[in-house]
Fold these 3 entries.
Entry 1:
Amino acid sequence: MKANRKKLMLAMARACMDTEDLQKAAEMPRPTLNNAICGKSVRPSTIGKIAKALKVDVTDIIED
């Protein structure tokens, strides 16, 4: 599962979070978060944790 970088960055901006804030809120290692931000394939649970931390639906941040 891949995150859409633009959608993810917009969700981060709406939540007033930078990558450090998101990493802490999602409780995941920095390299894992960076992989998601860069558009690399990550596990569905990773995308779920990111969406939960940003308080958005998963469909709002994944690739179409």
Entry 2:
Amino acid sequence: MPLPADTRPAPVPLRVAFWYWLKLGFISFGGPAGQIALMHTELVERRRWISEQRFLHALNYCMLLPGPEATQLAIYIGWLMHKTRGGIVAGLLFFLPSLLILIVLSWIYMAYGTLPVVAGILYGIKPAVVAIVLAAAWRIGSRTLKNRTLLAIAVAAFLAIALAEVPFPLIVLAAAAIGMLGARLLPSHFQVGGQHPGSRASYGMALIDDDTPTPAHARFTWPRLARVAVGGLALGAGVWLLLAWRYGAQGALAQMGWFFTKAALMTFGGAYAVLPYVYQGGVEHYQWLSAPQMIDGLALGETTPGPLIMVVAFVGFVGAWSHAIFGPGSVLLAGVAGACVATFFTFLPSFMFILAGGPLVEATRDNVRMTAPLTAISAAVVGVIVSLALFFGQHVFVQDGRPDIAAIAISAAACVALFRFQAGTIKLLAACAVAGLVLSYRHG
């Protein structure tokens, strides 16, 4: 029975929050927008653990950070309610279910991926992924490209990465520099947008309400910032040094640790933004996996709950399995180790940003000189995502030098379903998987 609107909910024990975060980890389909909507419905509207304004406040500052914003929002709310341990519990449970599911799917893919039924399913899913990436570009672009200046940045980023093959980190740095300059010359063009699409209406008194004082552990102090930052850096460095000592600094696991740390710092605009960087490193530089495998990994990642950036677990799994880093008789163990290393180093920065820098970012979020570089980066990200769709299309729509009419038709139908009918991702992928099975059976 819901509480009356004028009654404040009782304090929530950590064990109760634990079961909620675990449930969310298993049902958080739909990408960041869907995950944020799930949290809003449950935490703001139904349970009233946090007020609408405090929720939006947290969301806006998570959107300023590199990394998966929905994961960071969960960490933030958990931290605000139950201190550091609450943030760690919320963050871990948000992505651990998807990690476990993706490890199982990766094992099936590597061990049985050549079976006709598996190949048929992937044949149908991969064209859908192209449509999903285009839809992501449209969704982020409609929110980000508010004027011609930001549109020009997006177009320049697309040309830079698609035609000039400029590395993704250089595009990010160039966009940040443009944003810094734009904050001085055209500040109105670089205002931060991101708001949750839900209502601003009050849903009744919340446990953490608009007028609830900021708890002591969430107030900014330099000593606390230093403690958490040093602790996080020491943890990351310690794990990396252990991998380097045990398997060599040039070994695959140590290389993955360093690479995915850099990737985590490039995820402005969500997982789709960092995928070109992961592709450049994982496919072209380190050759952990092939380009078709990268597309297959994204297809599998779309079918699991949790943040889409979890596709890095697939990259780590396939890279460690393919290179048999523990020997030919332990490829499954190697794959699991690779997936865990990629996940650890991808998500560690997000925990550090929230637990250490949250109060500092909150204090400066309305300063356009602080936010303009991030706004410019978000605009550049749109162009990068479009280039990613173009890259995937080249590999999916052309087979043996000839256009694959069936794949093009599946992708076109998926675009209509996404753009015209707002179809859900899981239903779309299921339908395309069935179409792929039927087509592969008829041609088999």
Entry 3:
Amino acid sequence: MTQAATHRAIEAVWRIEAASIIAGVARLVHDVGLAEEIAQDALVTALSRWPDTGVPDNPGAWLMTTAKNRARDRLRLDKLHTRKHEQIGHELEALQADVEPDFVDALDAARQDDIGDDLLRLVFTACHPVLSTEARVALTLRLLGGLSTAEIARAFLASESTIAQRIVRAKRSLSSANVPFEVPRAEDRGPRLASVLEVIYLIFNEGYSATSGDDWMRPALCDEALRLGRVLAGLAPAESEVHGLVALMEIHASRLHARTDTQGRPVLLMEQDRGRWDLLLIRRGLAALDRAHAQGGTLGPYALQAELAACHARAHTPQDTDWPRIVALYDALAQVMPSPVVELNRAVAVGMAFGPQAGLDLADALATDPALANYHWLPSVRGDLLAKLGRRAEAQAEFERAAGMTRNVRERELLLARAKTVAGQ
């Protein structure tokens, strides 16, 4: 194998194994920042040795062993430095404390949460609410996605220095706040799990509909979010909302190839060639939705949104879409996740099910909501409904207003094109 091929193999292994290695080391050192440094040291060692010795049969295990050995060396060195500054009596006490009686191990085992995987601990730590949303996203992509600072910066159209500072500050914040490397206890898991799911879905959404820039989508981010969601579903199989989020992402991801034309221009849902939808991803999404239902209880926001996506996935043509059921699902979603954005989407569904005037009445009622003041989809939805009612001049103005509000180049082009079309130009 050439040196270049070896380096490519190392990069591939690192992308797959990085999260597990960092998680395994973090359990030993109880510091996510230090764990990442030690894991990176193991990677540097691989880069220097493998071109000469060849890639090991189990490269992930080699990296994990090397990283854990370095962690243990670091812990021994830290203990040695500490002991040099202690009295003999304190040193003896410390040595005795190193050998815990069996009942302590049993007590610790009894205190273990019902989910005790290192990787799950890393997920909950990287997505801790003590961090800002931007910091959680960057740290999650770095630690769990194995993305480099440059890749994260490219994905979110930020400078490398900005992302690097964000990651450094996030690790410092976790350390200074003494955030434990653990899965929250069952009674505390709900809010923390919500933060984890929020971060993963934010990553997916930025890939599915890029906030700004020249590209309509960034599929690599969708892939990373899907991978994280699948991992989380394997680690927390009893959590309905985890399966709901995976179902939602799988079904949405099934449309990626149909969401742009050959020139990279956006294609809206009702105009997509459904023959280009990925049937395997749809099947995976519906299976995940079944697992969400199997947990029992009331469906949460992600599972309800997955049900909405499933309505479209099951419709072979746009005309087959069950719009009354979609309206009912939005009614349920508004109960568990009240939001003006949910109400706006419900207005679209009502317009499809019961006529454009009914939808426009609901959209108009949202026009003064401050949460939607800069939300370009509000004038876009109004433009679509006005066009269906034959109010072309008003529709054109709304599409142009929406175009002026979006920061995505492709989206702006789409909205301006719709403005021209509705005006008969």
